Amino acid sequence: MKFEGSHILSVNQFDRDSIEHVFHVANQMAPYAKRQKRTTVLDGAILGNLFFEPSTRTRVSFGTAFNLLGGEVRETTGMSNSALAKGESLYDTARVLSGYSDIITMRHPDSGSVAEFALGSRVPVINGGDGANEHPTQALLDLYTIQKELQYHGGNIDGLHIAMIGDLKYGRTVHSLSKLLCLFKNVRFTLISPKELAMPDAILSSIENAGHSYTISETLEGNFDADICYQTRVQEERFGSQEEANLYRGKFRLNQQIYTKHFQSKTVIMHPLPRDSRVEANELDNDLNMNPNLAIFRQTDNGVLVRMALFALTLGVESIISKFDKEVHWYSGH
Amino acid sequence: MKFEGSHILSVNQFDRDSIEHVFHVANQMAPYAKRQKRTTVLDGAILGNLFFEPSTRTRVSFGTAFNLLGGEVRETTGMSNSALAKGESLYDTARVLSGYSDIITMRHPDSGSVAEFALGSRVPVINGGDGANEHPTQALLDLYTIQKELQYHGGNIDGLHIAMIGDLKYGRTVHSLSKLLCLFKNVRFTLISPKELAMPDAILSSIENAGHSYTISETLEGNFDADICYQTRVQEERFGSQEEANLYRGKFRLNQQIYTKHFQSKTVIMHPLPRDSRVEANELDNDLNMNPNLAIFRQTDNGVLVRMALFALTLGVESIISKFDKEVHWYSGH
Amino acid sequence: MKFEGSHILSVNQFDRDSIEHVFHVANQMAPYAKRQKRTTVLDGAILGNLFFEPSTRTRVSFGTAFNLLGGEVRETTGMSNSALAKGESLYDTARVLSGYSDIITMRHPDSGSVAEFALGSRVPVINGGDGANEHPTQALLDLYTIQKELQYHGGNIDGLHIAMIGDLKYGRTVHSLSKLLCLFKNVRFTLISPKELAMPDAILSSIENAGHSYTISETLEGNFDADICYQTRVQEERFGSQEEANLYRGKFRLNQQIYTKHFQSKTVIMHPLPRDSRVEANELDNDLNMNPNLAIFRQTDNGVLVRMALFALTLGVESIISKFDKEVHWYSGH
């Protein structure tokens, strides 16, 4: 996969080599993100950070990643203040706004909108989430986190056992992550969800075609010797009736007691921290905050590294970053 | 006209010399906007980009132009979150916010508001559009585009033939552009609009007083040997009755077929891309996108150059920009 | 008080030495704020400027202060677009967003929210106002302004006579300012307010315990030989009934005539310029704009200096700022 000048729109663009290349570059970003060093390799470059749908976390993560490489950020947030809200076509918006920046990150509520926008853009576009469709940087940061967590325990993505819990039917993140995992070897999936929210057959086929194995469970009961427990939210409105929703309420939540009972002591807990709170929905109890295997904040930290890597690769500077190194003189809590 | 330290509030401030000076500086900005070079002449300067009315395109264009000169941008968007919405006077807001920046760009829905704000400001203010009143940077970028397009065909603004189409009565952009064209020689205007939306007498008088000529047409029928076709939107609510609106609906739209029938093969198509979509109103059909004479995206690109020029002139750095040149190391689609 | 790496959450954190240290550093910031010099000491540092409640002035002031030290700003404005609005806990938001920046400034409508946020943050947090609770940078800039205005007249905070006018019961700013003044010597307070909006007993006790003196007045009638007249807004909805509100309407406003009649010719007029306009409520008439003792815009200018000082101290760079000095080449109205 050629990164320089390319759009990053979908996890389907990636093969194993290109993923490993992204992760290799992401590893090199750590000292900059930790403020041990400073680089100005992108001095003068401008990111157009176009969030036509709110997402504070993802928006700030992209902006920070670009700043950490020395670039500037121009931003638009929300639909109501935007040209798009006035009926302007995605093509026109792309033609105009791509004249103002060197690279664009874009979130939009409509599936396919970012790819349509990219057709009109004169600079690379990175998909920051287009509705139910794709959010490739989330999938990459999830996989990058899995790799780092496993390496910490002496493991590897090949041979991984991952438990996915919650809404496996509509969850964009578990689908994308599963696709990426299909590029690796001997992955075991334990898929735990209400029957109504089971993993779609298409993904199951991909898993089988990749030579992986899976088991399906409709309850959190049992002993799961998973390396990773990837938790997602079950939204009550997904069920056919309130009665059915009531049947499942709280059955897929995780707290310290449940974790201790059903998982290994080294099982890493992940969560995409999506549009809704992990706590409101009770899928991850606050009593897990002191659990060292709770990796959800390492995920968001890793997101900065992965986004820095994608910026560096797409703008073709990944091999010259350290030529622009400077010292850091201020206090850093990182 | 003295630029350094001055407000840019109206096209009426400009004489021919000052316009040519702006365009001369704008030409020098091209290598920076194309990312062939990088300058940091405004390193440490802060733009206060105050958009009390939404306009993604103009706002980002100003911000990008300032970044490309090496400056920083502080921004406010929308009225609801602003001090002004809480009843603060323009004078107070100006006194306070001008203490935070080196130059201010401001858009506001009320006519005259930017000039009132400028009275309280301690730094130069550039009008980014104040309701129906003025939007001088749009007029300048329109005229700059005309000059560049004509020069490409070996022509010149003196002797230009421009067709203006659509709402010539309320269209802020055609009024401002006409005023600027009155500073040049031997311009022919072909003014095509519904009778109810004809060019105001005051502008017609200015055109005559400048020694220019005009013809008026109420239909798009005929052979227009114009160098430039400047299209604007006809809003149905401008008519006295729905019946009258129906009478004109679609009569002033441009598509490839109409263009081929009524214009020269080299006629340049322009449009201010204003608050509403060019497509929703059908005034410029998408089938023109492949027409090389469609200059609407060159207009928005030129807007960055003109705004960079105005920043450089107003902050008095136009002659020292290249002293702060740096190399560009990243991929650029520009 | 140790500043490096510390949160700034409350005026209660400060003793006299630490206040004088902040003011000493703020004094050193003046040439940078006036654009006589430029520093890049915070090059590469990122401020997370999180305004979950609108406040254009305070938000831009923080952002500008950080830019003037050479840092970058990532921002979020308003609640509706934020993760917090989606029910995310302050702890989670803090854990995530503190991974993206080197220091955070935060405003939030709820009392105590910023301190709660700080518990989850991995970088220093500066309280930019949390509802009725605290707004320490406002209190510090008020006190800094008092010191500078007094020094201009050859005076000093020790021995100050300050008149406080308006809503002394609910006014966050007068409470905070009073607390800070209790760290100094021999301050005289003249407290002028409707009986219903009198200064709370707790503050009066603090004033007495500090060895200060106060007199209470229910009208603006009299001769007030105050050095400082600190005006705040009386909101009608604070009264028990409309009849009572009517009784007081306009009785605590200040205009040039009232100022001349009741104050010394050198009395400095201050106002926190809070959420509502000074003019709408008529507490400071526009005819005071030409009065050289009107210090309200010097207050907002001083706010930049104080915030720069707090950033420099919290990030531990206050002693090395001038090592990163650069020349300023552009026009500056400052």
From TrEMBL, chains A, B, C:
It catalyses: carbamoyl phosphate + L-aspartate = N-carbamoyl-L-aspartate + phosphate + H(+). The keyword Zinc does not apply. Residues 158-313 form the Aspartate/ornithine carbamoyltransferase Asp/Orn-binding domain. Pfam families: OTCace, OTCace_N. Residues 7-147 form the Aspartate/ornithine carbamoyltransferase carbamoyl-P binding domain. Pathway: Pyrimidine metabolism; UMP biosynthesis via de novo pathway; (S)-dihydroorotate from bicarbonate: step 2/3. GO terms for biological process: 'de novo' pyrimidine nucleobase biosynthetic process; 'de novo' UMP biosynthetic process; amino acid metabolic process. Its EC number is 2.1.3.2. GO terms for molecular function: amino acid binding; aspartate carbamoyltransferase activity. It comes from the Bacteria. PROSITE patterns: CARBAMOYLTRANSFERASE. GO terms for cellular component: cytosol. Gene3D superfamilies: Aspartate/ornithine carbamoyltransferase (3.40.50.1370). It is an enzyme of class 2 (transferase). InterPro entries: Asp/Orn_carbamoyltranf_P-bd (IPR006132), Asp/Orn_carbamoylTrfase (IPR006130), Asp/Orn_carbamoylTrfase_sf (IPR036901), Asp_carbamoyltransf (IPR002082), Asp_carbamoyltransf_Asp/Orn-bd (IPR006131). Keywords: Pyrimidine biosynthesis, Transferase. Belongs to the aspartate/ornithine carbamoyltransferase superfamily. ATCase family. Catalyzes the condensation of carbamoyl phosphate and aspartate to form carbamoyl aspartate and inorganic phosphate, the committed step in the de novo pyrimidine nucleotide biosynthesis pathway. This is Aspartate carbamoyltransferase. It comes from Paraglaciecola polaris LMG 21857. The gene is pyrB.
